[in-house]
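As a warm-up, study this chain.
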Amino acid sequence: MCQLAGVSERFLSFLCKKRAPVEEEMETRSSDSGIAVEHRRRYGYRRITAKLRRRGMRVNHKRVLRILRADNLLGGAATGVLW
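Now compare it with the structure written out below.
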């Protein structure tokens, strides 16, 4: 198949490995934002991480925090705003 396409096996494996994290990131991002909106931004990154883990997703709390900050879905001290 690689010969027909004119690419090496190494390049094909590189492309396959590169796409997987992007798809996983999008799935995590949509799940995070769904939970945050569902609970009207009352859930912090720790509760969202726990809920995702209960759903069977392997996520790190730091990753969830980074995604929620980027999407502006956190409130309070987690965003750097102290009351």
